[in-house]
Specification:
Elements lengths: L3 E3 L6 E3 L12 H8 L7 H8 L4 H13 L5 H14 L5
Amino acid sequence: MKRSQTCRYCDEDFISQPGKPGYVNECPACLHERTHPPVPKNFEERYLERFPNERKAFRDTKKYMMMRMGLSEEDFHRVMSEALNKAGTPI
């Protein structure tokens, strides 16, 4: 027998499904959110979120270092992250 439940996290009503994983009073959306953590942002997203006015400078620096110095994108992110950490501005 299916019956309506109220989610313990978001207080939304939902129909309880027999055999579903998680708690009886936990809606499927909250179960998914709790069991599938968000994917961490890459360095570029974190940097531009923190310094939104530096978008052009970041793009130009990235282009220069990748084309002129032959760095891969992963190496560029590592170098930039290390430089910011040394400068006392961890991203």
